[in-house]
C-alpha cells in the first residue's frame, strides 16, 4: 500500500470538517496503527459526505488541489519503512 493513487485522509485531531480537493478518497480514521478499516468515499456530485465508520464529515473544496486537505495534516501519506 506504499504507492496508492487515491488520497487517504485521517482525523487525529477530531476536527468537525475536513475539506478535501478530491471527489474520491479513503477515510482511515486515525493514523496507523489506530486506523479503522479504510472506507472508500465517492462524493459524486454531492458537496459533502460522512464516513460511515467514524462519522468524519468531508466537504469538497474546489479551491484545493487534488489530494490535499484543509487542515493539511489530515492528509495521510505512508512513510517508507526504515
Which key phrases capture this entry?
mainly beta, 82 residues, 8 strands, four-stranded mixed β-sheet
Q: What does it look like?
A:
By secondary structure, the protein is mainly beta. The strands form two sheets. Strands 4-3-1-8 form a four-stranded mixed β-sheet, with no helix packed on it. It is globular. The mean pLDDT is 93.
Brief summary of the model shown:
This protein is mainly β and 82 residues long. It has strands at residues 8-10, 17-20, 24-29, 39-42, 48-50, 57-60, 69-70, 75-76.
Per DSSP, the total helix count is 0
> Could you give the order of strands across the largest sheet?
4-3-1-8
Tell me the span between the first and last alpha carbons: 16 Å
Number of DSSP-assigned strands = 8
Shape: globular
Structural class: mainly beta
Mean pLDDT: 93
Largest sheet: 4 strands, mixed
Q: Topology as H/E string?
A: EEEEEEEE
What Rg is obtained from the alpha carbons, in whole angstroms? 12 Å
- Share in helix: under 10%
> In percent, how much strand structure appears in the residues?
25-35%
Which oligomeric state applies? Answer: single chain
Weakly predicted, low-confidence segments: none
Summarize the helices and strands and which ones pair or pack:
Layout: E1 8-10, E2 17-20, E3 24-29, E4 39-42, E5 48-50, E6 57-60, E7 69-70, E8 75-76
Parallel strand pairs: 1-3, 2-6
Antiparallel strand pairs: 1-8, 2-7, 3-4, 5-6
Amino acid at each position: 500500500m506504499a504507492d496508492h493513487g487515491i488520497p487517504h485522509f485521517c482525523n487525529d485531531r477530531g476536527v468537525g470538517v475536513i475539506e478535501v480537493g478530491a471527489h474520491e478518497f479513503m477515510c482511515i480514521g486515525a493514523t496507523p496503527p489506530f486506523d479503522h478499516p479504510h472506507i472508500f468515499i465517492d462524493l459524486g456530485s454531492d458537496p459533502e459526505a460522512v464516513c460511515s465508520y467514524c462519522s468524519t464529515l468531508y466537504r469538497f473544496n474546489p479551491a484545493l488541489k487534488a489530494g490535499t486537505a484543509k487542515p493539511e495534516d489530515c492528509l495521510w501519506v505512508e512513510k517508507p519503512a526504515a
